[in-house]
Design goal:
By secondary structure, this protein is of the alpha/beta class. The protein is 43% helix and 14% strand. It has 2 domains: 213 residues, D-Maltodextrin-Binding Protein, domain 2, CATH 3.40.190.10; 103 residues, Periplasmic binding protein-like II (D-Maltodextrin-Binding Protein, domain 2), CATH 3.40.190. It has 14 helices and 10 strands. 47% of the residues are buried.
Length: 329
């Protein structure tokens, strides 16, 4: 009888933990996910989880070069939080909508322009691209760069020709694409990548910009985070801690750009000019906010050309309810 009473007393002071003790984040090479770098270096997830009564929550980080493999990892349960461009979220949302594997956005993370850069002097617009040109990008079909190129083709030749340039594209990580483009003499002469790599490319006088995202879709959320219904529903406190940590990281980026750049350089282990990154963070086109912007512009195009079978009627359809109180779009 005594051991039963002792066991009952133990449970009374040590409540069972139903939520995860580790969150597995997936990020990409872009500057679009700087909140994750800040969270990693300042252990912000553990801080905010502890404030909600869950001490010792650990964050682990895996790097992907594009959203396709990341989405597969999310659906298989190998990661908990994915990140990427709006098309990656829209693709997985449309694929899983209403199912037990449903995926929605956690929040936006950033806004920044994306540039198609080329070293072929004959290519001044996308109309000048020929079968002799090849375009490196983080992931064909599902990356933001892939969809932006299709938007440009649809604008130039009509919606029926949206995929006219797709056969010129291939998948390559932004660091490798940048090295190849700057070196020249390889099997590709254009790269549609991400900051800061696109800015590094333009320091080579042989490279010029052919197309920018701002002219196609205007200012819009670039980096996004998303997760599964399974993770969202099973971990309400951890999920809130993730949002709180991302919000604190966003505020830190705005007030401490040099420290943020140092975190990013250390994490990516890339040879990046920190002055260049400092300049990008001072550019008003670069914003680190959790409020989604222009979600429906991306969705409308992808639905119109058949890339997704259904389109959200409201930006809130794409995201879990915790950020519905924001002035999103």
């Amino acid at each position: 009888m005594r051991w039963i009473m002792a066991l009952a007393a133990l449970f009374a002071v040590s409540p069972a933990r139903a939520e995860v003790a580790e969150v597995r984040f997936a990020q990409q090479f872009s500057m679009g996910y700087l909140q994750f770098d800040v969270m990693k270096h300042q252990d912000l997830l553990a801080k905010h989880a502890a404030a909600l009564g869950l001490p010792g929550v650990k964050a682990t980080w895996i790097t992907f070069s594009g959203p396709d493999m990341m989405n597969d990892a999310l659906l298989s349960g190998s990661i908990d939080i994915a990140s990427g461009g709006m098309p990656g979220l829209l693709t997985i949302w449309a694929k899983t909508r209403g199912s037990a594997q449903e995926v929605r956005g956690v929040s936006a993370m950033s806004q920044q322009p994306l540039l198609l850069n080329c070293r072929n002097p004959a290519v001044k617009t996308i109309r000048d691209l020929t079968d002799g040109d090849r375009i490196a990008m983080p992931a064909v079909k599902v990356s933001a760069q892939a969809v932006l190129l299709e938007m440009a083709a649809a604008r130039e030749w009509g919606d029926a020709a949206y995929d006219r340039l797709d056969h010129l594209t291939f998948s390559l990580s932004p660091p490798d694409a940048t090295s190849g483009l700057m070196a020249g003499g390889g099997d590709f002469d254009c790269a549609f990548t991400v900051p800061p790599f696109q800015a590094m490319q333009l320091r080579n006088p042989a490279i010029h910009t052919v197309l920018g995202s701002d002219e196609l879709i205007g200012p819009s959320s670039g980096g996004m985070a998303w997760t599964s219904k399974r993770f969202h529903d099973a971990n309400p406190k951890v999920y809130q801690a993730i949002l709180d940590a991302m919000e604190e990281a966003s505020v830190f980026i705005a007030g401490h750009p040099k420290e943020t750049v140092a975190y990013y350089v250390e994490d990516t282990k890339s040879k990046i000019d920190t002055d260049l990154m400092d300049g990008l963070l001072a550019d008003p086109r670069f914003k680190y906010v959790l409020t989604p912007s222009a979600s429906l512009r991306w969705a409308a195009f992808m639905h119109k050309v058949g890339r997704i079978k259904t389109a959200p009627s409201d930006w809130k359809d794409l995201f879990w309810p915790e950020i519905w109180g924001r002035d999103g779009s």
